[in-house]
Amino acid sequence: MSELATLARPYAAAVFKRAKETDSTEKWSQHLAFMSAVLINEDISVVVDNPNVTKQGLTALMLDICQGQIDSEGENFLKLLIHNNRLALVSAIAGLFEVYKADDEGYVDVEVSTAYAFSEEAQRDFVATLEKMLSKKVHITEIVDKSLIGGVLVRAGDQVIDGSIRGQLQQMQKALQ
Questions:
Q1: pLDDT of res. 170
Q2: How far, in Å, CA of 141 to CA of 128, rounded?
Q3: Which of 45, 72, 102 is the last residue of a domain?
């Protein structure tokens, strides 16, 4: 995955720069999400991965599928990815683009795994604590994971905070070995 991110980073940075220049970050976000959704489809991925399909054929297919969903800049970007044999990077590009967008807009997407669902009040308090700790507005996604036993596991970008019982037990196990 890190290799994909390394390859995708220059494309994501270029798209984000262009989106900022044209004040179209939301549009590009939608374009990249749509392209990612198309390429996740098994029927499409079989065609994309087939070495017998020419770049011209793949370009025609992808432009046909994306017609009406992406504008001319999106089409040019799609052509560039196909020409450079980088179509498989679209999901990674989309993910990095969203990270750049969130950073630019001053928020961070946070995934919180909990053993039990938060009450509304507990979630508000937890979000307020995270916002103070991270110095950014927080968009939270809550995932209930009973295997944590108790506590929370927080992922904010590349930062991980493991306050789960399972994590503490694993740390104790390592210390005892």
A1: 87
A2: 14
A3: 102
